[in-house]
Amino acid sequence: MLAFSFPLLISCWAGFFGANWFDFIIIRQFRPISDVGLYQLGWQIAAVAQQITIVFSTLLLPKLSIMVARGEKSAIRSFLDRTLPQWLLTTSVLFIVILLTARWLLPAIFGPVFGDAVPVLALLLVASSALALFNGLVPLISASGLTWGLSGVTLISASTNVVLDFLLIPRFGIVGSACATVLAYSLSAGIVMILVQRRFGHVRHLPWLIVPVPMVYLIILLVPDPVSYLVGVICGVVSVSVLLRIYGFGKVLMKEDPA
After folding, report:
1. What is the mean pLDDT of each run of 10 residues along the chain (259 residues)?
2. Residue 151 in contact with residue 10, Cβ under 8 Å?
3. Mapping DSSP to helix (H, G, I), strand (E, B) and coil, where does residue 147 land?
4. Where do runs of H (alpha helix) occur along the chain?
5. What whole-number distance in Å separates Cα of residue 12 and Cα of residue 157?
6. Could you give the CA distance from residue 125 to residue 45 in angstroms, rounded to a whole number?
7. What pTM, to 2 d.p., does this model score?
8. Are 79 and 56 in contact (CB under 8 A)?
């Protein structure tokens, strides 16, 4: 049990210090203390959304462990082809809703001064979509006994985040730190996808399920106001509708398709 869980403990601590604790230390070194508060608010809101993906990953591990141990390839394929896409699409909808409403909700709830936390939150929601993909695949890695490999992925991601923090925060401030998190989370999701693809296959379609989130973010960023949010809503609805039609919710989750 210790041999299985110890690498996971390393992963948790590496993720916490590399993608959270060090962010605040480096921001404090290069930016005023007020920026720490703004980043903290954006991070806390994103972290609440991220907890949903962590709970999903935790609940999946026992069932996927049984599937892997029994060699139930068809059930694993059903998970990768239908259950996980459905889940990723659900998280994308959640993140898009937060993304489209944060501009008004944050100042309304916390005060106008915290409106400057919106760009940070928006980027961290993009990072959260990559984390949703990562957490959706992690149970398969753990169930396969590759926990040390998972620790390596987390350490690489955390180290990348710290290095990018030093490069981006002095020039771009707290937005640079959020960008570093996006890149680090995307790297870890990409590596885990490669590991799962080599062992089980059927994962190359998964990034499409999180594309709506960065797409809506880029529209809000690049399209001039006041039409940016309207265009974001339209594109978000269209992209989610297309993906929903492909991966619809008509089948029972975790149910094997008939041969």
Report:
1. 48 53 89 93 92 89 89 90 91 94 92 92 96 93 79 88 94 95 95 92 90 93 84 88 73 40
2. yes
3. helix
4. 2-16, 22-30, 33-70, 73-78, 84-110, 118-143, 147-172, 174-199, 212-222, 228-247
5. 12
6. 9
7. 0.87
8. no
